Amino acid sequence: MPLMSLSVRQKLMAIVLLVCIGYAGFGAYSVYNLSLLSSASGDASNLSRLTTQVKNLEVSLLKLERKISALTPNDVEPLNQELKSIKETMATGFQIPPSLIDSEGISLLADTQTLLPNYITAIENYLKTRQTLGLNSESGALGKLNQSADELAEKFGTLASFGSSFKDIRNLEKDFLFYRDNSHQEALMASLNALKDNINNLGFDDVFAQ
């Protein structure tokens, strides 16, 4: 039906219909765009979460390296807690839709998730080894070695004093043989008893008894 042959009322209805169709199309277009925006917002949120996870993990690893480089007994427990936290992050993994990152990013994440457990295991083994060997001069095998060295040095110091003790005894013996009185005898016996005590303290009494 030609538009010119329509009545005014029909023309108005046709215009209203065209306007409604236009609005309907615009509404559908708006809903589609909103859906894209919502999807983009979700993707951005996922990427932001992944970036935060990676950065937090990087910071934790850097702190771990710094503490290990100057390890003390007081650092052991905090380090174990940090290792536990890192392993929990590893167990959760980096949850991200593959469509949001390219093939290179996927490959890097896969390499990280493969290498990181081996690195953490190496750190744990290093920590156990350092604890066994000793984190300072008083702990572990190093502490026992230093203690033994101190005891040996003390014994050698006592042995070194034997030379002067024997010399003193020899002089006291000469004095006693020359004077032959009680005072010189008591001095000689006191010196001999002191030497005997030193020998007993060193555990050599059975050797000298033979």
Spell out the key features of this protein:
0% strand, mainly alpha, 210 residues, single chain, 2 domains, membrane
Commentary on this structure:
The protein has 2 domains: 3-133; 152-209. The chain contains 6 helices and no strands. The chain has helices spanning 8-69, 76-92, 103-133, 140-179, 182-202, 205-209. Helix 1 packs antiparallel against helix 2 (76-92) and helix 2 runs antiparallel to helix 3 (103-133). The chain crosses the membrane at residues 12-32. This is Methyl-accepting chemotaxis protein. It comes from Marinomonas foliarum. Keywords: Membrane, Transmembrane, Transmembrane helix.
Using the CA coordinates, give the radius of gyration: 45 Å
Give the low-confidence spans.
none
Total helical elements: 6
Rounded mean pLDDT score = 71
Number of domains: 2
- Helix share bin: over 70%
Instruction: Give the end-to-end Cα distance, rounded to a whole number of Å.
Output: 141 Å
Helix and strand element order:
HHHHHH
Sheet-strand content, in percent, reads: under 5%
Task: Provide the structure class.
Answer: mainly alpha
Shape: rod-shaped
Question: In total, how many beta strands?
Answer: 0
Question: Can you summarize the main beta sheet?
Answer: none
